[in-house]
Amino acid sequence: MPCSLFSDGTQTLLVSPTRMAVPSVWCLLVLQLVVMAAGPCGASVRVISRIAFGSCANQSAPQPIWNAITDFDPQLFIWLGDNIYGDNKHPFKLFGKERTIGPWKNVERFFPATEQEMRQRYEMAKNNQGYSKLRQRAQVIGTWDDHDYGLNDAGKEFSGKDTSQRLLLDFLDEAQESPRRKQAGVYASYLFGPTGKQVKVILLDTRYHRDPVFSDGTILGEAQWKWLEAEIKGPESEVTIIASSIQVISNLSATTGPMFYMESWGRFPKERQRLYKLINDSKRHGVFFISGDIHFGEISRYDCGCQYPLYDITASGLTQAVEKAVPPPLAFVVRVVAWLTPSTMRVFAPICRYRSCTYGQPNFGAIEIDWDAVPQRIKVEVRDENGDPVTGVDFLLSELHPRSMNMADREKGGYQQHCSLEIDLPWILRYRLAFLFFGTISVFVAASALLAYIIISISMKFIPKNILCILHADWTILSSQYTVLYLQHK
Ligand SMILES: *[C@@H]1O[C@H](CO)[C@@H](O)[C@H](O)[C@H]1NC(C)=O
Ligand SMILES: *[C@@H]1O[C@H](CO)[C@@H](O)[C@H](O)[C@H]1NC(C)=O
Ligand SMILES: *[C@@H]1O[C@H](CO)[C@@H](O)[C@H](O)[C@H]1NC(C)=O
Predict the structure, then answer these.
(1) CATH number reported for the structural domain that contains residue 51 in this entry
(2) Domain shared by 383 and 475, yes or no
């Protein structure tokens, strides 16, 4: 029965006629219509309503989070990069022959792996029991970030990128004849669901064509921009998810610098403006972003990029998480730092309002679209290893439609809060973390100096004069003896 193919959602419509026994004319006709509507990328006609996503998974570490993801029962899973840690690193060393940090560092901490090493790491990731179980139930698609691209923080200059592209596409079971294997970079788009309930997923490649970080150059490169413009301006879909390995909305570097900087679209202001403008000019509705990379989860929102709020749901990482990177007693310090880092874009959901609304333990993203609700709703959450939500947003699909909002409406709705950029914060607030950091260090240094001074002056007072005299005499004798020895030696 060819029509039964329609309920088999994981099939894309590359239907081989040999699979149909004696198809009825009607079924063939319907099939043909759907194939025509599906477009070149292929579309599955099962209604898609549950999507999970994640990033930053260390293939060598235990990955218990797959249980929670499988329990969520997604129809689709999206990898947002650092799907494996493919590159190698020298140990963290301040002193010694190979120094990887500090102003005196003489060796880069990260270096590329061989193809063989990368392949083994992908195999390990793919054979993970939890992930294998998910793969049997859900379709898996994805893009990359720096560590599976092959080198920490690398961009277009990285010479191993074509090998890495082949390895990623092998890991994702991309067909050998897929055009994605022939283009420069791993960007791709997918269309799921029947007319009226369509979900488009656009996977960006933020590595292959990326200029150096301080250049304010390009992230996507011209060929990918042309493609993206066609995708965004192309046929409508009820929901459009743009997946970027690095954060689009939140520009944390503006408030964590000069202590540390993170990669994000915010570091390429011209490129980010171009993205907002493209979405705004296209009048496309239902667009939001998902991202990974930063080793904690958060939801950001920007209200002045186009004519409806732009959300960016960051889920990071599946194993790599900031609070796990430090010894357990220090996890508390990480949490305080997160809480003190100002952000103009972060969404303070009711569920985390009294925490920082950043989540520094392993997490994944969960999207649920309620197509049957009237009006239709969508819920996007960051969930923990138990599958419990730690932050989330829940809105009507109709809220992501272009409409003119006047300033009064915006202020009433609290929109104002998500319109100002981090760099426009008053300096005392913007550099709060830096003041605290350098302030703490200065206080510590001053306190140590004071303590040393007090100890010395007290000991001067209490040590009897004659002992000081003896010490002094000893020193004089000793040094004269050395002088004699030295002169003799010469
Ligand atoms: C991945 O996990 C292994 C085993 O726990 C550990 O040795 C390695 O340093 C981890 N890699 C990263 C990038 O965290
Ligand atoms: C993001 O922050 C960086 C670092 O402070 C700054 O150079 C950049 O201009 C900011 N980007 C935007 C769009 O505000
Ligand atoms: C978005 O486009 C509208 C016109 O359609 C324009 O009035 C508005 O200024 C644009 N917004 C931004 C942020 O570019």
Answers:
(1) 3.60.21.70
(2) no
Number of domains in the chain: 3
Q: What is the CA radius of gyration of the chain?
A: 28
Closest CA to 135 of 243, 12, 10: 10
pTM for this prediction = 0.85
- Per-residue pLDDT, 23: 43
CA-based diameter of the chain, in Å?
Answer: 116
Residues 381 and 457 in one domain: no
Give the Cα separation of 234 and 218 in Å (integer): 23
pLDDT category of residue 176 using cuts at 50, 70 and 90: very high
Q: Which residues line ligand 3 (CB under 6 A)?
A: 277, 280, 304-307
Is residue 426 domain-shared with residue 442, that is, in the same domain? Answer: no
Nearest atom in ligand 3 to the alpha carbon of residue 307 is 1
Is the pLDDT assigned to residue 487 strictly greater than 80?
A: no
What own/partner pairs with CB < 8 Å and gap ≥ 24 does 219-224 have?
219/265, 219/268, 219/271, 220/187, 220/271, 221/156, 221/184, 221/185, 223/183, 223/184, 223/185, 224/185, 224/187
Instruction: Tell me which residue of 225, 40, 62, 206 sits closest to 130, measured CA to CA.
Output: 62
Q: What range does the domain containing 9 cover?
A: 2-37
Rounded Cα–Cα distance for residues 464 and 343 (Å): 60
Handedness of CA 295, 297, 302, 308 (dihedral sign): positive
Asked if the structure places residue 162 within a domain, the reply is yes
Q: Cβ-count burial of 127 within 10 angstroms (0-12 exposed, 13-18 middle, 19+ buried)?
A: exposed
Q: What is the pLDDT of residue 320?
A: 98
Write down the pLDDT at residue 100. 87
Q: Whose CA is nearest to atom 8 of ligand 1?
A: 60
Buried b (16+ CB within 10 A) or exposed e, 14-31: eeeeeebeeeeeebeeeb
**At CA 261, angle to CA 359 and CA 347, rounded to 5?**
35
Please check whether residue 42 lies inside any domain of the structure.
Answer: no
Pocket of ligand 2 (CB under 6 A): 251, 253-254, 257, 266-267, 269, 272, 421, 423
Same domain for 305 and 227?
A: yes
For residues 302 and 248, what is the distance between their CA atoms, to the nearest angstrom? 10
93, 126: one domain: yes
Q: Are 230 and 101 in a shared domain? A: yes
Domain assignment present for residue 56? The answer is yes
In a domain, 23, yes or no: yes
Q: Which residues pair with 369 in a beta bridge?
A: 378
Q: Are residues 270 and 341 in the same domain?
A: yes
Ligand 1 atom closest to residue 62's alpha carbon, by position in its atom list: 5
